[in-house]
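forwarding from the other thread:

> can someone predict this with calcium ion?

sure thing
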Amino acid sequence: MVRTMLALAIAVAAAPLGAQPTPASLKVTPAAQQLFERDWVLMNWALKFYDRDRDILLEAAEAHAAADAFRRMADANGDGRVTPEEYRSARAFIVARY
Ligand SMILES: [Ca+2]
Ligand SMILES: [Ca+2]
């Protein structure tokens, strides 16, 4: 019973955030979450600015927003892709700044 209530509360809490994911974002999301799961610097940064419900977890929508922001920050030459070099600079920027 308690468990059911909790699940329900979580579902309700998540609902307002639920900007309906487009098929495209559904594809991007696992990669977005992996990006943060394999780099704690990025994860800390993402949680600080994009963990909108403050549960210390990066849900799909949050990871997607954070990955978008990181891509914009890291893509120094604006070609829409983040090279390993751009990734390293952006990571160093985050370490120094945040
Ligand atoms: Ca969260
Ligand atoms: Ca680039």
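The chain has a mean pLDDT of 82. thats all i got for now
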